Automatic annotation (TrEMBL):
Transmembrane segments: 12-35, 47-66
Coiled coil: none
Superkingdom of origin organism: Bacteria
Keywords: Membrane, Transmembrane, Transmembrane helix
Name the record gives this protein: DUF378 domain-containing protein
Length: 71
């Protein structure tokens, strides 16, 4: 998917999805959770990041029906 054709919401979503994928790769390969390492002292913010990553994945699934992205 080309990022130049995406609306602003989907660009942010793609960045968050990449962050989530990178974090899960680190967890799987090295048992190291980067989000926890950075935000572990603030569990509420850490949880918000995880929710935003999940919502971003759903937004990316809906990207094909976004009128702003498919001009």
């Amino acid at each position: 998917m080309m990022t130049k054709n995406l609306c602003g919401l989907h660009k942010v979503g793609m960045i968050l999805v990449w962050i989530g994928a990178f974090n899960w790769g680190l967890v799987g390969a090295f048992n190291f959770n980067l989000v926890d390492a950075i935000l572990g002292s603030v569990p509420t913010v850490e949880r918000i990041v995880y929710v935003l990553v999940g919502l971003s994945a759903l937004a990316m699934l809906a990207c094909r029906s976004c009128k702003a992205c498919n001009r």
